[in-house]
């Protein structure tokens, strides 16, 4: 059993700021760092739990692409495609305010050039997990490739979709194709509200579930944990109280660990509890890829 990640690895330029600047204003960053992010965070979280992971997305041939590949291989993640020549991997400017909230500006690069031919080498088997990011559906080449490839998958392959914060910008036909094939739709409460128009997370979780053709819904509710809608049953899985330092990457840690736990055979509720713990640990450290390894997570859950 393995995870095939079809999202986008990018470079994160993270700036800590006391508050976001007003329009036309300026603010001095108190800290600046750069690291691979985007899909890297999800894959690292899953790999640190022992799940074999392959990155099947596109990547560039410049310095950002080099750093991304180095980081992927350091986590034991296989890289399927050769670098794109003449184009670098894109980057994300992430502003983290004094309360730990993050705001993004994305500059796409080579990761936005996936084609159907790139996916021909992929042969997911029954029991494999395929991860799709809503960000990919914003890029025309990736969107065309994925919407053509996903319907061909063996029904026994588990597809996990994270629509991302720009879910309302995904073209309607592409969005419906994801809703039709997703086995798990994993998003945060804000994204669920954007998708359904329901501000209450519980109502939004029910509304997301009603739009899925075959899958189940997971709605992350921050420190409260997450909501599960699975096999006709609804459950709130509580979170873990911690002192948050940086919320960047918490959702990615949650999704990566949730997938790894499902692959290990945990029930959805058990996997969600483990993912809640991973997200709680992730926010106690600065940086986008702060998901814990399996031993650290086991020790944390053992104390709780």
Structure description:
Helices cover 33% and strands 22% of the residues. The protein is built from nine helices and 13 strands. It has a nine-stranded mixed beta sheet with strand order 5-4-1-8-9-10-11-12-13, with helices on both faces.
Strands side by side in the biggest sheet:
5-4-1-8-9-10-11-12-13
Q: Ranges with pLDDT <50 over ≥5 residues? A: none
CATH level-1 class? Alpha Beta
Share of helical residues: 25-40%
**What is the third-level CATH name, the topology?**
UDP-N-acetylmuramoyl-L-alanine:D-glutamate ligase
Largest sheet: 9 strands, mixed
Topology:
Layout lengths: L2 E3 L3 E8 L14 E8 H9 L5 E3 L7 H12 L3 E2 L11 E6 L5 E6 L21 E5 L6 H10 L8 E5 L9 H10 L2 E5 H8 L4 H11 L4 E5 L4 E6 L2 E6 L11 H14 L4 H15 L11 H10 L1
Parallel strand pairs: 1-4, 1-8, 2-6, 4-5, 8-9, 9-10, 10-11
Antiparallel strand pairs: 2-3, 6-7, 11-12, 12-13
Summarize the structure.
The protein has 304 residues and is of the alpha/beta class. 33% of the residues lie in helices and 22% in strands. The longest helix has 15 residues, at 268-282.
Main attributes of the structure:
about 300 residues; alpha/beta; about 20% strand; globular
């Amino acid at each position: 059993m393995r995870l095939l990640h079809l999202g986008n690895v990018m470079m994160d330029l993270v700036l800590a700021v006391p508050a976001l600047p007003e329009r036309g204003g300026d603010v001095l960053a108190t800290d600046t760092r750069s690291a691979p992010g985007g899909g890297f965070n999800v894959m690292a979280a899953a790999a640190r739990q022992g799940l074999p992971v392959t990155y099947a997305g596109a990547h560039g041939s410049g310095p950002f692409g080099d750093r991304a590949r180095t980081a992927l291989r350091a986590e034991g993640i296989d890289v399927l495609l050769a670098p794109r020549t003449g184009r670098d991997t894109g980057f994300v400017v992430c502003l983290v305010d004094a309360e730990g909230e993050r705001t993004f500006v994305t500059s796409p690069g080579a990761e936005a050039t996936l084609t159907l031919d790139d996916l021909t080498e992929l042969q997911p088997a029954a029991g494999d997990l395929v991860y799709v990011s809503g960000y990919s559906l914003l890029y025309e080449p990736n969107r065309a490739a994925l919407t053509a490839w996903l319907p061909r998958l063996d029904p026994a392959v588990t597809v996990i979709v994270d629509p991302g914060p720009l879910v309302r910008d995904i073209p309607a036909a592409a969005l419906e194709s994801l809703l039709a094939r997703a086995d798990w739709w994993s998003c945060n409460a804000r994204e669920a509200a954007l998708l359904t128009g329901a501000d209450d997370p519980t109502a939004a979780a029910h509304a997301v579930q009603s739009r899925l053709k075959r899958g189940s819904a997971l709605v992350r509710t921050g420190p409260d944990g997450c909501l599960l809608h699975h096999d006709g049953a609804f459950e709130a899985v509580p979170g873990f109280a911690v002192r948050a330092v940086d919320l960047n990457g918490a959702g990615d840690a949650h999704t990566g660990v949730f997938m790894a736990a499902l692959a290990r055979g945990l029930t959805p509720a058990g996997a969600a509890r483990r993912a809640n713990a991973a997200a709680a640990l992730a926010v106690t450290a600065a940086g986008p890829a702060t998901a814990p390894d399996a031993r650290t997570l086991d020790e944390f859950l053992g104390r709780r």
